[in-house]
Design a protein that fits this description.
alpha+beta; GTP Cyclohydrolase I, domain 2; four-stranded antiparallel β-sheet; two-stranded antiparallel ribbon; 17% helix; globular; GTP-CH-I_C/QueF; cytoplasm; queuosine biosynthesis
Length: 146
């Protein structure tokens, strides 16, 4: 293990045994200190291989999840995000719930200044669904503030 470890990051330090959780409730979103809290800058995660289950039929749903945020004091660690998103694979949820759940969990984990989560669900039955959920900290002029 490197001597450049960051306190609190446990998932990134595990090299050969990644434990995938069965539900988002069991997954951990880890964070690390933002070294540039004095500056507004945008972090984007592009997650093209998201899967979940239809809550009615149990059939698999496939999606692309796009997360864009302006951090404050903490940033989300990407391996923990990958494992967290993977935890939805056996969960039956509607697309709207998934997108809002991801947003709520990210807000709880890193308390960003502004964040947007977009779920672009692949078509099933001839209809694709695109859901965007957004949060802007009160008093912060986010990218979509007027």
């Amino acid at each position: 293990m490197s001597d450049k470890t960051i306190e609190g990051l446990t998932l990134l330090q595990k090299s050969c045994t990644t434990v995938y959780r069965d539900s988002p409730e069991d997954a951990i979103l880890e964070t690390f200190p933002n070294k540039y809290p004095h500056r507004n800058y945008v972090i984007e995660f592009d997650c093209p291989e998201f899967t979940s289950l239809c809550p009615i039929t149990g059939q698999p749903d496939f999606a692309k999840i796009k997360i864009t945020y302006i951090p404050d004091l903490k940033c989300v660690e990407s391996k923990s995000l990958k494992i967290y998103l993977f935890s939805f694979r056996n969960c039956g949820m509607f697309h709207e719930e998934i997108t809002n759940r991801i947003l709520d969990d990210l807000i709880a984990a890193c308390d960003p200044r502004w964040i947007s989560v977009r779920g672009m669900m692949n078509p099933r039955g001839g209809i694709g669904i695109d859901v965007t959920a957004e949060y802007c900290r009160p008093g912060f002029e986010g990218p979509t503030s007027k």
